[in-house]
């Protein structure tokens, strides 16, 4: 699969991109824009500027990574999913169970969780990629709920509703302990998120990524020009599953707890909401959406959780009506408009 | 508690009738406009609250609250269809999902805010309580009543769809909205009326279901999966499809709870994935 990511047949993709000049521009344009550098610099600065908020900040980084994974399949390949928590939860339980059974080295746990997420995604891709949008929504919803029930029923292994609480994660690189203030947690989550982001950034600008966009916009035409549509979708779905599994592992390791809610429907639904509020198909949309969503939730749910749900619902309705591209969508649209003038 | 097979079948059919009543409107509107409306359960919940509060605060008898629930649901459907749903017909499924999910969240939160988070009990009139004793089988009177009501409504719906000009317009619009519009059928009007009728039926179903399914503000989310399941498995735009799907789901869900309670909700989700795999043909029209 990875071979396909890095070396797709160039002849097949060259034809997909419209004019050859645009193709060359979009492929070669891997330079970091100032705004992107500023974004990551700000994320790193949080570590020094807001030392009291690092627990929340690491949650945001983890959720952002999770949203990035959904953006890969939804924003680029056009695959809708209401059950993305299945892979997240799979990764979280993998990391949690490893730590629970004495394997407490975090990095290898992270890799194992990525493998678990990829495995779940690959196994379910044959179901989840069938049919049109409605079928996909329903099947992914059903698969997500089944994973939840599975974890709920397998209480001897997963702890059921009580969750996995007696897990201890070892020191990162044998040096940094996971402290209560979240310093290690934030640094660890942010570095992993940034690393995966760079990988995704490379992937979506590769010929493989362009072919995904082609599949999103014109699946029939793409298969007519010889793109293996189904294989590309399975590949990106598996990659997204691995990333979601990593996000789950990060949550398990940084909070040292895995509860059933890692697989819950609301995790999948909230994720979709964040991503769409942030904007799909930009990579930054998921990160921005996660930050806005979680800060708002942190501030508002202090009053009353019911209020929060109401405002969230209202925000969704308004976003659908007035800002179909989400936050980053609006920014990019404005920026492009300004650039053309 | 009926442990026997006929008893389980009976309860399953009663449960299935409720599911059918609540999701038939969704099935027709989804088939016609390809509009994915996750907020359909909110209409059912509205009906339930009209019934419960009407009895509790205004002292309206149970049977009289049922038509009232229907009317309130229909009115709510009419207002929302006009103001919010209509502009989104041409949008993609993702926008529709997000919009209706937002609407559902708002409905849940608003209901909790106004009426509290607890369960709403309903006191049934005495002639609907108790059991009917047949040899070897006890049948709940209320469940018999449910089945009878839903059977009557189903017959009326079939008559409407098969026998009237309006029904012919609905069938034509479901089959091919564009051609129907070309032939002079006002598809938007047909759709609006169907949406209103479907919302009313959902509200009626919500009112009837309080005693069986319970009623609390999370109702639209709790039963969302079931409604969608009925629609997706049953196929869109017909009466027979959702009816069959509701009965299968109802029977399997009840049987699963009686015979393999340790499997929990696994039965119903497993059934859903299995049905989706076995009958992708039923989905094709929706998936378009």
Number of strands of chain B: 2
DSSP strand tally of chain A: 0
Radius of gyration of chain B: 19 Å
Q: Give, in order, the helices and strands of chain A.
A: HHHHHHHHHHHHHHHHH
Uncertain segments of chain A: 1-25
Q: How many structural domains in the coordinates of chain A?
A: 1
Rg of chain A, Cα atoms, Å: 20 Å
Strands side by side in the biggest sheet of chain B: 1-2
Secondary structural class of chain A: mainly alpha
> How many H/I helical runs of chain B?
13
Query: Helical element count of chain A?
Result: 17
Q: Give the N-terminus to C-terminus distance of chain A in angstroms.
A: 43 Å
**Structural domain count of chain B:** 1
Observed structural traits:
heterodimer; A: 341 residues; mainly alpha; 0% strand; B: 288 residues; two-stranded antiparallel ribbon; disordered C terminus
Task: Describe the fold and architecture.
The complex is a heterodimer of chains A (341) and B (288). Chain A is mainly α and 341 residues long. Chain A contains 17 helices and no strands. Chain A has one domain. In chain A, 74% of the residues lie in helices and 0% in strands. In chain A, α11 crosses α13. The N and C termini of chain A lie far apart (43 Å). By secondary structure, chain B is mostly helical. Chain B has one domain. Chain B is built from 13 helices and two strands, in the order ααααββααααααααα. Chain B has a two-stranded antiparallel ribbon with strand order 1-2. In chain B, β1 and β2 form a beta hairpin. In chain B, α2 packs across α8 and α5 packs across α6. Chain B is globular, with a radius of gyration of 19 Å. The C terminus of chain B is likely disordered. At the A-B interface, α8, α14 and α16 of A face α4, α10, α12 and α13 of B.
